[in-house]
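Encode chain A's predicted structure.
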Amino acid sequence: MDNGLTVWSAEFENGVIWQDMQHRELVQAIHKLYKAIASRQPEEVVQKIVAFLYDYTKNHFEMEEKYMEEFQYPDTMIHVQQHRDFIAMLDNFEKERIDSKTLANLSLCFDLNEWTLSHIKNEDQKFAKYLIDEGGA
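Encoded structure for chain A:
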C-alpha cells in the first residue's frame, strides 16, 4: 500500500549500526501507525503503537545523548533541543489525534515521518560522522 510516506532507504543510513537499526525501527513504527489509522483499527491498537513510539523514541534519544556527552559532541545542545521538539510533536500528535478525524491524523503521521527522516538525514548523520571520527562507532 503506497501511503505517500517517505520510506526507509540506504540514503538514511549513517554507518553507526545501532543508530541505523533504531532509526529504521522508528520509521517502521510511524508507518505502522499510519496504516492502523488509515484502516481504522480499534483505539487500543493505535494506542499501543503510540505508546511504543514514545518509549522507543525516549530510549533512542537517551542513548544518542549519552554518546554525545561521552564523546563531547559540539552540537549536543542543538541536537538535544531537537529531540525535545520531537517529543513535544508526539505530545501534540496524541492530543490532536484524539480530537481529530482520520484525514487529519494521517497528516500528523506524515509530519512525524518527515521530521524523523529529515532529522536522521541531517543532524544524525552529522553526529554519526563525528562519532565515527572520534572512534565511538
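The mean pLDDT is 90.
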